[in-house]
Amino acid sequence: MTPKKVLVTGSAGRIGRAVVAELTVRGHIVTGYDVRPTPGLPAERSVVAGLGDVDALRRTAAGVNTIIHLAATPDDAHFPRGTPPNDGDNFLTELIPNNVVGPYQVMETARVGGIQRVILASTGQVIDGHIRDGHLPVTPASLPRPRYLYACTKVFLEALGQVYARHHGITVLAVRLGWCPRDAGQVAEIRQSELAQDVYLSPGDAGRFFAATIETEALPSYAVLYATSRFVHQLRYDLSTCHELMNWEPQEQWPQGITGS
């Protein structure tokens, strides 16, 4: 396979590092874009900038085949929302600039630059209501029932991708990701929850999944997919479309891959 030129936003995050590592091992030419340096990349391919720096984003994206957009504020400031003084939110300060304006800038970068494939990282929190009510497994056709404000921004991201696919001919995958823990505290949370274990996404499976999104030659113009590792207790997300479109299936299962989280 001819190596792909790939831009990964959010490349210094937990999933971002896994994606960069997997793509690099496979011989692809990866450039990272994050507010922090990206481990595993040489300085000239580790761009330190935010999504609001449109000039930097477009310069960095010039000539790439695919953008994998992972950068985001990763959650609500408070959920469940508490009582004063713990009843604030991060909607205006972080979620809107990073999770609404940011994806718009990414899609505009793809449109202006003629980039033909964009992979957008959504979240299982988009369909949290179905999970909580036991409507399982949740499928790509399931309508959004978002958990809270962070998930609402990902509903927008999915709709944005659909619009750019339809009107600008960009191939877009919106991926409702499982939980890839960022730290020891999140690992401890997953240990306490059967649901969390079933939607766990190991770094290894995450890397292989995103590799499949760029190495699969023919994809529909727009699709919603789920990405998790193998469930432990009960199938929560229908992953069959991943196999049908990309011949991808998870290889790992909680707690495989948590070392280094």
In short:
The chain is of the alpha/beta class. It is built from nine helices and seven strands; from the N terminus they run βαββαβαβααβαααβα. The protein has helices spanning 14-25, 54-61, 91-113, 128-132, 149-168, 184-191, 194-198, 203-215, 240-246, and strands at 5-9, 29-34, 46-48, 66-69, 117-123, 171-177, 222-227.
Characterization of the model:
With 261 residues, the chain is of the alpha/beta class. It has a single domain (5-246), classed as NAD(P)-binding Rossmann-like Domain (Rossmann fold, 3-Layer(aba) Sandwich), CATH 3.40.50. It has helices at 14-25, 54-61, 91-113, 128-132, 149-168, 184-191, 194-198, 203-215, 240-246, and strands at 5-9, 29-34, 46-48, 66-69, 117-123, 171-177, 222-227. The chain has a 7-stranded parallel β-sheet with strand order 3-2-1-4-5-6-7, sandwiched between helices. The radius of gyration is 17 Å and the shape is globular. The relative contact order is 0.14.
Characteristic terms for this protein:
261 residues; 39% helix; Rossmann fold; seven-stranded parallel sheet; globular; alpha/beta; 9 helices
Number of extended strands: 7
**N-to-C order of helices and strands:** EHEEHEHEHHEHHHEH
Distance between the termini: 31 Å
Instruction: Specify the oligomeric state.
Output: single chain
Radius of gyration: 17 Å
How many independent structural domains? 1
Biggest sheet statistics: 7 strands, parallel
CATH topology: Rossmann fold
**Which secondary-structure class do the elements indicate?**
alpha/beta
Helical element count?
A: 9
Q: Strands across the major sheet, in which order?
A: 3-2-1-4-5-6-7
The CATH architecture comes to: 3-Layer(aba) Sandwich
Instruction: Write the CATH homologous superfamily.
Output: NAD(P)-binding Rossmann-like Domain
Beta-strand percentage?
Answer: 5-15%
